[in-house]
Design brief:
InterPro entries: BH2638-like_sf (IPR023324), UPF0223 (IPR007920). It holds the Pfam family UPF0223. Belongs to the UPF0223 family. The chain is mainly alpha-helical. Helix content is 61%, strand content 4%. Strands 1-2 form a two-stranded antiparallel sheet.
C-alpha cells in the first residue's frame, strides 16, 4: 500500500520517525499482530509528541483516511491487555 503518514512540520526528524513507527505498529496489529509491550512503547512515545487528545484524534483520522486502518481499537486493546499479549485486530467484514 502506498500512502503518506500524517505529521506536523513542527516536529523534529526524530519525532516524525517515531510517529511513523507508531503507525507502522498500528498496521502490524492489523496484518500480523504486535506484542503489547512494543505497541505500548510506541504509543507512549507518540503521546510525548502529540499530548493533545484533539490533535491525536485529528492525526488518527488523517491516518485512517490515507490507510484504511483505524488506530483507536489498537490503542484501546493495547491499554486493556496484559503484558505478553499479542495485539491483533480483525477488521469487520475481513480485508
Amino acid at each position: 500500500m502506498e500512502y503518506s503518514y500524517p505529521f506536523s512540520t513542527d516536529w523534529s526528524t526524530e519525532e516524525i520517525v517515531d510517529v511513523v513507527q507508531f503507525f507502522e505498529g498500528i498496521e502490524k496489529a492489523y496484518e500480523k499482530g504486535i506484542k503489547r509491550e512494543i505497541m505500548l512503547a510506541k504509543y507512549r512515545r507518540f503521546k510525548e509528541i502529540v499530548p493533545s487528545q484533539a490533535e491525536e484524534k485529528s492525526i488518527f483520522r488523517e491516518f485512517e483516511e490515507a490507510s484504511g486502518y483505524i488506530s483507536y481499537p489498537v490503542v484501546k486493546q493495547t491499554k486493556e491487555a496484559e503484558d505478553g499479549t499479542i495485539i491483533k485486530i480483525v477488521p469487520k467484514g475481513g480485508r
